[in-house]
Amino acid sequence: MLTVHKMHFSIFLLLWGWVLSTECRAHRQGKEIHEVYKKGSPILKRSPDITKSPLTKSEQLLQIDDHDFSMRPGFGGPAIPVGVDVQVESLDSISEVDMDFTMTLYLRHYWKDERLSFPSTNNQSMTFDGRLVKKIWVPDMFFVHSKRSFIHDTTTDNIMLRVQPDGKVLYSLRVTVTAMCNMDFSRFPLDTQTCSLEIESYAYTEDDLMLYWKNGNDSLKTDERISLSQFLIQEFHTTTKLAFYSSTGWYNRLYINFTLRRHIFFFLLQTYFPATLMVMLSWVSFWIDRRAVPARVPLGITTVLTMSTIITGVNASMPRVSYIKAVDIYLWISFVFVFLSVLEYAAVNYLTTVQERKERKLRDKLPCACSLPQPRPMMMDGSYNDGDVNELGHYVSENGDKQDRMMVQLALGSERGSGRRKNLRYVSMRIDTHAIDKYSRIIFPGAYILFNLIYWSIFS
């Protein structure tokens, strides 16, 4: 019995020793593997993931955390030079009413910040998007006299940052800006406008930041396909000036100047031709019988109202300026011609009425001259036949032309001596009321042609 117990105990000791030896062997192998990984064995080492390695992050490569980028480069030293160039993508609109323009452009800045320099074996630059811009120093440019502006963000913010190994930086962004343009409409629509887009640093004076065009006038590039419906773009050019603010000092300011010449053909069709036709239409009344009141009066009123509508339509699309424009001169003088044609008929009608009234009075005062040959009866209501009357009362035609003339024979008696003899004298009085219309047919067109010659020679 005792022997059996001793056998069981010895078996248990053997099993326990085998388990311990197995665990020790496994622990020793794990320690050796760990040592191999730690020493970097070429057999067991895996290729590192450079996207997860903290040593390749752009912030650490550019040493962003080691510098204070709230200060400009070279703070305390001379002004940092910042070069600028612009590529105009489109000139979207010109508004005469608001006196502004809208432009889309690529604005690029060039400067050197040694704090961003990094080691490089192949001298290749690094390009970043807009996320890094918020962590470094960039020039604080703004558009002077701008009303609205924004950076395009489709499909992402249109911002690019490129850093060279020596610290040179290119900062580019795509912007649409609406800026004020002081326009002079004294020659509208035969005018030429010059507008400017002004770029300036908001915080840094010329002592801290020297703003300049990188390549002079070649710093401004434009797309050849840029066109406007109402304007011809004549030229783009750049200038540089200093702007002074009494409370902060002097600032460098860059100007993008462009000259626009207005297309006249649209206004010829919409304004000048209709106004000229209305004036010519008012002359038709000079060839209409002066007794045709229902024909001449509506014609004159229609032309006057049409001219008023044209003037109102032109002024509705223009700013309310306090000076006279070239189109105002043309339209208002045309309006005066139309109005004078109405007054001309009013004068003709009035003189005709006065003449008929005098003829009626003379007829009532005529004495009976029975011994004289009497002329043929005439209608005294203004509807008499056309022709001339000679002293004997006979009508004589003048080449068939209508002559609204009338001969009135007056028998005047004069008493002489005691015999109270009557001596009859015949006096002829000729009245031509149709002459006003005849002269108007020549004077009105001649004066309007002369006005057009003077107008277009001055403003064209």
Gyration radius from CA atoms, angstroms:
50 Å
What is the overall number of helices? 6
Estimated share of beta-strand residues: 25-35%
Q: Report the principal-axis shape.
A: elongated
| DSSP strand count | 20
Overall SS class: alpha+beta
Q: Give the averaged pLDDT, no decimals.
A: 79
Question: For the report, how would you describe the main beta sheet?
Answer: 8 strands, mixed
Query: CA-to-CA gap between the ends?
Result: 138 Å
> Which residue ranges are poorly predicted, with pLDDT under 50 across at least 5 consecutive positions?
36-56, 369-431
Secondary-structure element order, N to C:
HHEEEEEEEEEEEEHHHEEEEEEEEH
- Helical coverage, percent range: 25-40%
Using brief descriptors, characterize the structure shown.
4-stranded antiparallel β-sheet, alpha+beta, 20 strands, 8-stranded mixed β-sheet, 460 residues
Walk me through what this model shows.
The chain is built from six helices and 20 strands. With 460 residues, it is α+β, with helices and mostly antiparallel strands. Strands 1, 2, 3, 5, 6, 7, 9 and 10 form an eight-stranded mixed β-sheet that branches. Strands 4-8-12-11 form a four-stranded antiparallel β-sheet, with no helix packed on it. It has a two-stranded antiparallel sheet with strand order 13-14. α4 (293-316) packs antiparallel against α5 and α5 packs antiparallel against α6. Mean pLDDT is 79; it is low at 36-56 and 369-431.
